[in-house]
């Protein structure tokens, strides 16, 4: 049986997943351009201005305040690294490997960022505070327990992204708090433009994202996974969350005639090798249309599963739309 992810299980396995934002589409290629503006190549997107502030209520209702614009920021999960990169900020320290991806800082520059010991689940408080951070950003359901130990020494911001709209909201919130408003608006517009273009020409293929390290893998669903939340409007994605105890059988996935499979291989302990290679040992695997047609794509789990921000999701859209053509 294939275990579908709960919010906590998903955030743990992946190291970890817009009320305030309005976006609109302008003239399509078939409509005449106005005299005052040049037509966009495909889709024109506008975003609301971001106002700088040292105090706000974030996209999920959490109140955050700082004495001044934070300069030393410690990231305890990859969405933080993603957002800071979009805003042109390098974190003071991190416990994510996302920054080494060539779409972010790259391997050499990422080595210059200190790593918090203790891993994703239990980052060391003393190590965090040794960096004298103005702001520490973590995943709420995993790092919320650190709040008492950090109280009084720094500002702790627990985030809980579940959809791409949440991620955009957090981008805007961090941009406001750091005063990087222009950078935030630019990043949001770039992502929304790319998403609008993908939604304008959706694929008729059935897609599926799976993740794990062995045959006991999970199904990423739009309700519980940020990357998967992009898929219903760019492809056929008939996968719904079934809660903590819900599961999919390989037979059921075979029956859905999946055309394109995206595979996120996770590594734990001594586990090695690609998830798709391990699943190939099951005779049912080879009968799935995506497998038969060579449309199984091993993707970077740091980006697809853990990043969850607009830069990661832009990469996801690029790779997904290319595979779904």
TrEMBL record:
Boundaries of every Fe/B12 periplasmic-binding domain copy: 72-325
GO-annotated cellular components: outer membrane-bounded periplasmic space
Gene3D superfamilies: Nitrogenase molybdenum iron protein domain
Signal sequence region: 1-23
Keyword entries, A-Z: Signal, Transport
Location relative to the cell: Cell envelope
Alphabetical list of Pfam families matching this protein: Peripla_BP_2 (PF01497)
GO terms classed as biological process: iron coordination entity transport
Primary localisation category: other
Stated family: Belongs to the bacterial solute-binding protein 8 family.
PANTHER family reported for this sequence: IRON III DICITRATE-BINDING PERIPLASMIC PROTEIN, IRON(3+)-HYDROXAMATE-BINDING PROTEIN FHUD
Annotated protein name in UniProt: Iron ABC transporter substrate-binding protein
Organism: Streptomyces qaidamensis
């Amino acid at each position: 049986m294939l275990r579908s992810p709960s919010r906590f299980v998903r955030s743990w396995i992946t190291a970890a997943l817009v009320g305030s934002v309005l976006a609109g589409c302008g003239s399509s290629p078939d409509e005449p351009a106005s005299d005052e503006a040049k037509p966009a190549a495909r889709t024109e997107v506008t975003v609301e201005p971001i106002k700088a502030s040292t105090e706000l209520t974030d996209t999920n209702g959490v109140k955050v305040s700082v004495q001044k614009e934070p300069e030393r920021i410690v990231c305890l999960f990859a969405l933080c690294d993603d957002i800071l990169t979009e805003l042109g900020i390098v974190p003071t320290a991190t416990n994510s490997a996302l920054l080494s991806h060539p779409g972010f800082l790259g391997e050499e520059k990422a080595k210059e960022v200190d790593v918090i010991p203790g891993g994703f689940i239990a980052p060391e408080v003393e190590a965090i505070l040794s960096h004298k951070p103005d702001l520490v950003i973590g995943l709420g359901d995993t790092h919320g327990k650190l709040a008492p130990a950090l109280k009084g020494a720094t500002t702790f911001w627990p985030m809980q992204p579940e959809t791409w709209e949440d991620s955009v909201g957090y981008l805007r919130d961090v941009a406001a708090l750091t005063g990087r408003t222009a950078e935030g608006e630019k990043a949001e517009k770039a992502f929304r433009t790319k998403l609008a273009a993908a939604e304008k020409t959706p694929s008729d293929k059935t897609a599926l994202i799976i993740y794990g390290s062995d045959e006991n893998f999970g199904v990423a669903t739009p309700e519980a996974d940020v990357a998967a939340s992009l898929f219903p409007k760019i492809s056929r994605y008939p996968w719904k969350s079934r809660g903590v105890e819900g599961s999919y059988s390989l037979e059921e996935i075979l029956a859905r005639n999946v055309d394109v499979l995206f595979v996120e291989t996770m590594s734990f302990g001594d586990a090695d090798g690609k998830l798709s290679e391990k699943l190939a040992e099951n005779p049912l695997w080879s009968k799935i249309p995506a497998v038969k047609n060579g449309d199984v794509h091993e993707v970077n789990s740091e980006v697809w599963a853990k990043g969850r921000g607009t830069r990661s999701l832009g990469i996801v859209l690029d790779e997904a739309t290319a595979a779904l053509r």
